[in-house]
Specification:
Largest sheet: 4 strands, antiparallel
CATH architecture of the largest domain: Orthogonal Bundle
Distance between the termini: 34 Å
CATH superfamily of the largest domain: Isoleucyl-tRNA Synthetase, Domain 1
Strand content: 5-15%
Bound molecules: arginine
């Protein structure tokens, strides 16, 4: 089915084209009318005519089918008011449509690289952002109909593993496993590092261990695997707490690409791209320079012959194009890695591993700050443990529930508290424009009022409670919507604009667009519910309003689900 927006655009486009082929009309939901038509000014400018004049001509050319009134406003806007029949017919078809008007499109393979924590290191808020944003993008792309392949590029290789393995040996396997399984990764890592810095004998052992690891010595690999498995079990625990769909099968850590790294170098070399810089093998992709204007190297192999991140990222990229058949690769990685990733993409293009038809995009995000707008750290100055963060959110949610004296108790109450905590954490992350920093403030995030996850989940549950008051399960039986009052009309228009909101969130990889939409919809619903009695209304109005309630609940539930947020039936 065509969305209201596109149906309207189809009425308007020919009039624009008649004046100038390819001219771009822009429709925006508007306060004063239903939509405002922009783009007239730009059109007038290219025609060298006055906007007013052009607007007048458009007015006489636009197909009025579905449009009640068109009015020129200001210097060159056109206010569009739709006919009730037009809105009504779209509402009716949305009511029958499980996709609520959002089109599904031909298959395209999208690889999404997200989460990517490091073995034997605590997951921090940066990983939280990558995980939550990546999960939302995954759900949105899947809903769009794409074939989505998730890749968790876990940091599970490199020189620190020498000291980590030696520390594991010193502790004894059982003791090491015990300390790692309670998720005390930071302590483990820190103790290893302290010893490495203080103790020369330990340092030597660690260095030798790296050599054995790289040589694939079996006992060393076995010990390494203990570290990996313990960490993966811990990551799984975090994902489960967050209700994030990332499985062990989707982990393709850095180690996975190990045996491809030599060929990365030799293939780059045959392509004539490798330069020896003081013993390090580098690529200098054009266009990247330092402050003094000197070309910047992407170091593929270090002077000690070890490989850096660039080599692994290149191997993974090649794999994603060749083996996975990616049409689009999204890297959900913090903003500080922008330069690294663009150099990797540029190198892959030069090497011919990344054909023009494949898009590679760094989906960057900003920092998480504390209430004094400093980087979010624990009192000890370390990154905050994700698990304890989620746990304190759950605690707060439980407290908030107890204050609301809800009828839900026992296990249901605990589940609900967890759902609210997740909604709070995820929504506050996703509702900020992703490139921007945001302040991690549990109290504000968990509030049931304002632009929060719990507020939206509650808005949904509140609508569901209307239906619980009916004697029998409700089945839609409406034939039309009269939409006589302003709040009803405004809610209807809100419901019909899900497809545009979804589309822009998907294209711009901007979950916050969906958040803004849902919050606006919830507010339209509140205005409607305050002004229009539902259950007490006479038929057929009662039925119509119940249908509006149903559509709102479905839209909120779908929108939240696309963000990875649950919408409980009752709160
Ligand atoms: N493990 C890295 C970190 O914790 C992030 C890796 C991002 N993904 C990638 N393909 N480079 O910072």
């Amino acid at each position: 089915m065509t969305s209201t927006y596109h149906a309207l655009l189809a009425r308007v486009q020919p009039a624009f084209d008649a004046l100038l082929a390819g001219a771009d009309p822009v429709l925006r939901p508007s306060e004063r009318s239903d939509y405002q038509l922009n783009g007239v000014m730009a059109l007038a400018k290219s025609l060298g005519r006055s906007p007013r004049d052009v607007a007048d001509q458009l007015l006489s050319d636009i197909q009025l089918d579905g449009i009640a009134t068109l009015e020129v406003a200001g210097p060159g806007f056109i206010n569009v008011t739709l006919t009730t029949e037009f809105i009504q017919s779209h509402l009716l078809s949305t009511l029958d449509d499980p996709r609520l008007g959002v089109e599904s499109r031909p298959t395209q393979t999208v690889v999404i690289d997200y989460s990517a924590p490091n073995v034997a290191k605590e997951m921090h808020v940066g990983h939280l952002r990558s995980t939550v944003i990546g999960d939302a993008l995954r759900r949105m792309n899947e809903f769009a109909g794409f074939r989505v392949i998730a890749r968790n590029h876990v940091g599970d290789w490199g020189t620190p593993f020498g000291m980590l393995i030696e520390h594991l040996i010193d502790l004894g396997e059982a003791q090491a496993v015990a300390s790692l399984s309670i998720g005390d990764l930071n302590t483990f890592y820190r103790s290893a590092r302290t010893k490495f810095e203080a103790d020369d004998e330990f340092k030597d052992r660690s260095r030798q261990r790296v050599v054995s690891l790289q040589a694939g010595e079996l006992e060393t690999l076995r010990l390494w695997e203990i570290l990996v498995n313990q960490s993966v079990a811990y990551f799984d625990e975090v994902y489960a707490k967050l209700n994030v769909e990332l499985t062990a099968e989707e982990i393709f850590g850095e180690s996975f690409y190990n045996d491809q790294l030599d060929s990365v170098v030799s293939d780059l070399d045959s392509a004539g791209l490798i330069e020896d810089s003081d013993g390090a093998l580098c690529v200098f992709p054009p266009g990247f320079t330092n402050r003094d204007g000197e070309p910047l190297p992407l170091i593929i192999r270090k002077r000690d012959e070890g490989y850096g991140y660039a080599a692994t990222d290149l191997a993974a990229l090649r794999d994603r194009v060749d083996l996975l058949g990616a049409d689009e690769i999204l890297y959900v990685v913090g903003a500080p890695q922008a330069q690294h990733l663009s150099m990797v993409f540029a190198t892959a293009r030069l090497a011919g591993w990344l054909p023009e038809r494949v898009t590679c995009e760094h989906v960057a995000f900003g920092n998480v700050l504390d209430r004094s707008r400093k980087m979010f750290k624990s009192r000890e100055g370390e990154s905050v443990k994700l698990v304890s963060l989620i746990d304190s959110a759950v605690e707060r949610a439980e407290h908030a529930l107890s204050e609301r004296d809800s009828s839900i108790s026992g296990d249901d109450r605990r589940t609900l508290a967890l759902q609210i905590a997740r909604a709070a954490i995820k929504y506050s992350d996703l509702s900020t424009e992703r490139q921007r920093d945001y302040v991690f403030d549990l109290e504000r995030m968990i509030a049931f009022e304002g632009d929060t996850g719990p507020y939206l989940a509650y808005a949904h549950a509140r609508i569901r409670s209307i239906f619980r008051r009916l004697d029998a399960p409700w089945e839609p039986s409406v034939n039309g919507f009269s939409l006589l009052t302003e709040p009803e009309r405004s809610l209807a228009l809100g419901l019909l604009s899900l497809p545009e909101a979804f589309e822009s969130a998907l294209q711009l990889r901007a979950p916050h667009k969906l958040c803004t939409y849902l919050f606006d919809l919830a507010q339209r619903f509140t205005a409607f519910y305050e002004a229009c009695p539902v259950l007490k209304a006479p038929e057929p109005l009662r039925e119509e309003r119940l249908a509006l309630c149903e559509l709102t609940a479905k839209t909120l539930a779908l929108g939240l689900d696309l963000l990875g947020i649950e919408a409980p039936q009752q709160m």
